[in-house]
Amino acid sequence: MDNKNKKVIRDIILIGASTGGPNAIEKVITGFTQDINAAVLVVQHMPSGFTKAFAERLNKKCRLEVLEARDGYKIEKNKVYVAPGGYHMVVKEPGVIRLNQEPPVWGVRPAVDKLFISASSVFSNRIISVVLTGMGKDGAQGTIEVKRNDGITIVQDEETCVIYGMPKVAFETGYVDYVVPIDKIASKIQSLMNN
């Protein structure tokens, strides 16, 4: 790929996690500085009722504004949107969050794949996706779609995962660009954003 003539702006960060995810997500989000100049969309496998408290806790610890997503929210930079438990979070043109209660994917709702795949069709090469600790294979198909649309794909390394399931399956697709320890993911994302 020849990026010499045209600089790609990477300003959409997608994060998916399951078991062990809340602490991992907190490490990534609190590692960002205010001038990240990107929007962050998060799917954490959690039942309904828990995601609002999770978003509020992150909001207190983080420089960026963290919200539990609502249907119709416009995606804005320097905001973090957490998918509400019990709802898939998808992205529609021109960058609007939609929530739905379509059937679970891989037994979960929200599903990482739903977010990654829908965002890829809207934002294509502007995306950096991250699959963090968790059981199962949610996020693998989405990782493929992000890479096929010229986004950048990251997974958490085995050593720092509580459960090396989702990152492992995503890595095994052959579509992962970087394998990174949890405490280095925020800085890795920031270094990639304007390359």
Q: How does this model look, in words?
A:
The model has no long low-confidence stretch (mean pLDDT 95). Helix 3 packs parallel to helix 4 and helix 4 crosses helix 5. The longest helix is centred in the middle third of the chain and has 12 residues. Helices cover 29% and strands 22% of the residues. It has a single domain, classed as 3-Layer(aba) Sandwich (Rossmann fold).
Mean pLDDT: 95
Beta-strand content bin: 15-25%
SSE topology string: EHEHEEEEHEHEHEH
Shape: globular
Helical amount: 25-40%
Strand tally:
9
Specify the structural class: alpha/beta
Spans of at least 5 consecutive residues whose pLDDT stays below 50 are none
CATH homology superfamily? Methylesterase CheB, C-terminal domain
The number of distinct structural domains comes to 1
- How large is the radius of gyration? 15 Å
What profile does the largest beta sheet have?
Answer: 7 strands, parallel
The CATH topology corresponds to Rossmann fold
Number of helices: 6
By CATH, the architecture is named: 3-Layer(aba) Sandwich
**Biggest sheet, strands in spatial order?**
3-4-2-1-7-8-9
Name the CATH class: Alpha Beta
Distance between the termini: 13 Å
